[in-house]
């Protein structure tokens, strides 16, 4: 029977398979990169109830990357040998429960960077260690030709005022990225969707950081750490004006450097009056400039920070 005629009889959108039709042969139906003008969508519609021979059905379909055979009825098929031979581009199969991939089907398994076949979302290889895949789908679902992902490489880190802007290269097949940054034993992470290859993190204390990015591919994190080191420094702000500042924040503290009050001003000529002040007690203040749309972060966790606090006695 000619392939075109066989296909017409098996496609539900064209004509049903007749009950008295026997011994349908679809050998090489998709030979050489989808012949006869068939698409992958067409293949999912095939009514294979009376098909007896699927030998070399997808032989040499290097352009075939995915195939859904959940609707296939293979009860009468006697031969599936070389069904997936030389299908080196096939990396996704949607299989019904109980569907068996046998060595005779010639489905590529381990070669180049591919480690075998696994359920989508896992990295557990179920197809053996040979050149050809052998496994049975224990549940209906998606199965992928597993290739361990390579984590992105950071292309640029721009440290700023208590922040870092990280940019990285895209990873094929990634559905999500995670930016990791670690100093000492403290590690934090932020997730980004796959449309982003950059992340800006603010409110980060000064210090030396290890920064790396991982990707989520086939539901699994790549894990590999391509670490880049960066240093964030707090800016110690003396109580003087800065030419680029548009305004200032004046922060008042007690002798324990605990914040009491905050005032904003466009210049440094001001008078501070507060009922909480006790005559004769000492207080301090420091000034933070507003530059390029943000206040420069300034903390009091180090001795050099406290040296910038001006102490005075309330009168």
Question: Features of this protein?
Answer:
3 domains, 21 strands, 3 helices, Immunoglobulin-like, mainly beta, 315 residues
Outline of the structure:
This protein is mainly beta and 315 residues long. The protein contains 3 helices and 21 strands. The protein folds into 3 domains: 1-148, no CATH class; 154-232, Immunoglobulin-like; 247-313, no CATH class.
List the helices and strands and how they pair.
Layout: H1 3-10, E1 24-25, H2 40-44, E2 51-53, E3 66-68, E4 92-95, E5 100-101, E6 116-119, E7 135-136, E8 141-146, E9 154-159, E10 164-168, E11 174-183, E12 186-193, E13 198-201, E14 207-217, E15 220-221, E16 228-232, E17 247-253, E18 259-265, E19 282-291, E20 294-295, H3 303-306, E21 310-313
Parallel strand pairs: 1-2, 3-4
Antiparallel strand pairs: 4-8, 5-7, 6-8, 9-10, 10-13, 11-12, 11-14, 14-15, 14-16, 17-18, 17-19, 19-20, 19-21
